[in-house]
Amino acid sequence: MNTQPNLFIPADLRKRIFFTLMILALYRVGVAVPTPGVNADAVLAFFQSKSSGIFGMFNTFTGGALKRFSVFALGIMPYISASIIFQLLQSAIPYLESLKKEGEAGRKKINQYTRYATVLLSIIQGYAIANWLSGQNPGGQPLVSQPNFGHFLLPFELVTVATLTAGAMFIMWLGEQITERGVGNGASLIIFAGIAAGIPRGAMSLYKMVTGGEMSALMAILLILGMVFVIGIIVFIEAGQRKITVQYSQRGMNAQKQVSHLPLKLNFSGVIPPIFASSLLMFPATMAQFIKAPWMQEIQQSLTPTGAVYNVIFVALIIFFSFFYTEIVFNPTEVADNLKKYGGFIPGIRAGKNTAEYIKRVIDRLTVAGSLYLSAVCIMPTLLTSKLHLPFYFGGTSLLILVGVALDTVQQIQSHLLTARYDGLVRGVKMRSRRVQF
Question: Which residues pair with 149 in a beta bridge?
């Protein structure tokens, strides 16, 4: 038997990686395709002047598509918002809760409803952006160069809504294709690609600030070291685990206790809470285009990434989604029942209900610590960079998503490698017959 480890990437994994890269490249090509009827140069200059507020964050998550007002200007955020809505509704509506318990068939139905909600949200957000953009006239130069289209004189708002909705649905489809046929979570990787695409531009802006005398070289070095420090903290926490000792008793005359561990991640929810929280905080900017009341405009103006109101709501949403997501994906009662079924127990804790309560207490403490860690990582770098008056948005949320998605993708690649190596070892073993040889 050949036990030498295979140093080459399996063919199936190569196909998956290549497929993922091709889909992400196709997404980046679509970001450069402008929406019909807009003055591309005027729109680019207009959004560059608003790169520090909520538009800067939204533009970062769309990979620069909003700044160019391309066909992908809405990005993946409508799909994420729809997913949030239906995950919340599964706990409130008995019909959706029963679908969730049906397994694969119920999940497909919920996904179909999520797609319908994505279309509705895309239409609402697309009309809001189109209506707001058509009313902008900075310096006497309108951003909309063609208010009507074709022989039927279709209004700009109608064409834009159709274009942006189609773009959002296409991005959703790309994300689903990556999840099914590629490596990693499709929606997260699309956000990752959008944020990563802004790194070279941010580095060039920082270099120009240093060479132009707007920032000292020492301050730039400290800023880079601070980013490296935050990345190190994220990697350390994301890889951290709380191991609960589990013992398995064996029956027989030579019974021995086998000791194992139940690993619980320190940050069980990963990058999901910041993504969900950011998505919901972008919603008031959309509603402000429909509600022209002064109080709504004040709410929109107060929700900037450096404002106190924004950060308080942001932290509250991160904590809420951390507990909510952990509650959905981790069931302490089910874990305790499985341990009892296979003869496992936690030393000093009775099997069954007491074990479930103990695991629930541990996971709640980890969730509190994890949500506070997420809040600190997402808020502190953003506030620091705003004090330095950087000409680009690159906050803690972006760093967290970049590192978290990268770690998750690497783990999935390692899982594929281990599976392929195990299959190769089993395939190379010659099974000997148990029949008696004469």
Answer: 154
